[in-house]
Batch of 2 targets.
Target 1
Amino acid sequence: MEEIRKIIHIDMDAFYASIEQRDNKKLKGKPVIVGGDPHSRGVVATCSYEARKYGIHSAMPSSVAYKRCPYAYFIWPRFDVYKKVSRQIRDIFYRYTDLVEPISLDEAYLDVTNNKKGIKYATQVAKMIKDDILRETGLTSSAGVSYNKFLAKIASDYNKPNGLKVITPEDKQEFLDTLPINKFHGIGNVTERKLRNLGVNNGYDLRQLSINQLESIFKNRGYVFYQLARGVDDRKVEPYRERKSVGSETTLSSNLDMNDEEVLDILSEICEDVSNRLKHSNKVGKTITLKVKYDDFTKITRSISLEHPIYKAEDIRTSVYNLVKNLESNKGKIRLLGVTVSNLLENEKNLTHITIFEYLDYIKESTKQ
Ligand SMILES: [Mg+2]
C-alpha cells in the first residue's frame, strides 16, 4: 500500500493588515483596510478581522468599503515589507521540509511526510511552525493538516484565525459530506449554480452523482469532482524554483537569410512576447541573448549585458538589433530565432501612478512570488 502523505497548508491571518497592526500600535483592534485610496478607484487588498465585521472583503472597491465603515484606517500597501515577512516565513518552513509550494506571499503547502526533524505527527509539525511564526514575526497563522492538498487547504480555512485543524483519512468522509458545495476546490460561481440547480448543495449530494453524470455535465472536471467528493487528490506538493530567465523563440516557416528584412520583424515580435512574459512575472533583466539556429543545425548565441535592467519590448529590441548587426551574415539560412532575458531582478514599480487594473495585476503578480 502506498504511504499516506502528511500535508500541511499554512495560511497567514489577514496578512497585510496584521503586519500593519503589528507595526503601528494605534491600529491594534481597529478596522484596517490595506489597499487603494477610498476616494479613488482603488480596491481592498486585505482587511483586518475588525473590518470584516462590516462586510468588507478583499477585491471590494475601496469606496464601497468606505461607505460600510468610514472610520476604518485605509493604508497603502507596503509590499517590500510584506515580501520580507513572507521570506522570513518561508525560511521557517525550510527548517522542516524542502517540499514547500508557495501559493502566494502568505500561503503555502508543505509535504512533511519525511520532515527534516524526524517528527512523526504532522499536527505537531504544524503546531511548531505556527509557534515559530508567531515568535519570530509576531503574526498568527492558520494551519490545515491532512493527507492531501485539497483537504489540508479546506482544513486551514476551518477555524481561522489562529486555527489548527486536522482531517484524518478516518474522518474525511463525514467532513466532506457536510461541506458546502462552493468550498470544493475548483467550484466557482457558475459551477456552483449548476450544481445547486441539480439539488447538489454539499459533499454528500455530490457523492450521489455517478461519474457518468458528472462527466456529461462537466467534461474532464467531472472526474475531479468525483474524486474530491471522496477525498481523493493526488496532486504533489511542487517546490518553488526561482526563474532564472525569460525567453521566447520561433521556428521559421521558411528559412531566411540574416539580411532579409523579415528577420527583424520576427525578432521584433519575439521581443514583444518576451516583454509580455517579463511583465507577467514582474521581472526586469540585464542580460539579453540572441539565439540563431541555421539550416545545417549549427547554433550560435550572442549576449549583451546592460548596466540597467529592462523589460520593455522596444528596449529589448534595441539590444537584439545591435546583436544582429554584429553577426556574420553569410553563415547560411536561418531556421530558428530566439531571445532570452536573464540576470533577472524584481520589477520595483512605482505604485503611486498606476491604474486600478495595473494595481490588481500587481497584487496578483506579487502574491505569486
Ligand atoms: Mg491569508
Target 2
Amino acid sequence: MPKLTFTQTGETFDLAPGTSLLVFCQETQTPQTFGCTVGHCGACICRVTNGGENLNPPSEGELETLEQLESGEGARLGCQLEIQGDVTIAPA
Ligand code: FES
C-alpha cells in the first residue's frame, strides 16, 4: 500500500494505489493549497522529494504550467498527481 508523506507536517498516510492527491486532500482536509484543480493556475505546485517514479508522468499541460512558473527540479502540480507507490511531498 503506497505511503504519502508530507514534509511540512511529518504526517504519513497509507493510500490505495492510484489515489488522486487532490481527492485525498479534499476528503481528509489535509492542508495542501489548490486553486483551479485542472492544472492551469499553479496554486498547488509542490516539490516531490522522494518517489517521483511512483507518480503518473506529467501531461503536456502540466509541463507547460510548470515551465510558465519557472519551477525547479522535482516540481509537480499537486492537483495532477496520482499516487502509485511511496511518495514524499514538500512545499515548492
Ligand atoms: S490547482 Fe491549479 S494547477 Fe493545480
